Amino acid sequence: MLVRFACSVLWRYHQSRRIEARGVDVGGWEPALRAVTFDGDMRRAPEVLTLVVDAPPVPADRFAVSPSRGRFDDRVVWNIVLYGLAFVVKLDKRPFPKVQHQTGVINGRDHIGGKVQTLTVADIREMQAITRRMKRGGPMR
Length: 141
Hints:
32% of the residues lie in helices and 21% in strands. It is an alpha+beta fold and 141 residues long. It has a four-stranded antiparallel sheet, with helices on one face. The longest helix has 16 residues, at 121-136. The radius of gyration is 16 Å and the shape is globular.
């Protein structure tokens, strides 16, 4: 259900005409995301990692990040954060190269396991700086 949810969020942003969703382009993955979202066809699902975002100064019920494109282990990923749960959706045909990343993929598993890492004050300050730059507008770096 979590993989299907993450795929549905990406698919919806990709289809949306809202200004906030303008940068979400999943390219050739659109049919697969649609099939997972509406038909439950998990054979076509991308690999998805999940993480918990725990930042005591920021309440989980007040923190969300809409889909943003990034790279993880040189693979194209989309990151989504909602209510303290982060999704890393790999829209890249190549598997994750490291065993520890592959074991964190939740597709087809009845359990989720992984590493716990504390979010530091320095991490929060960096996120605040990024937010301030976003509020100012202008070109992103």
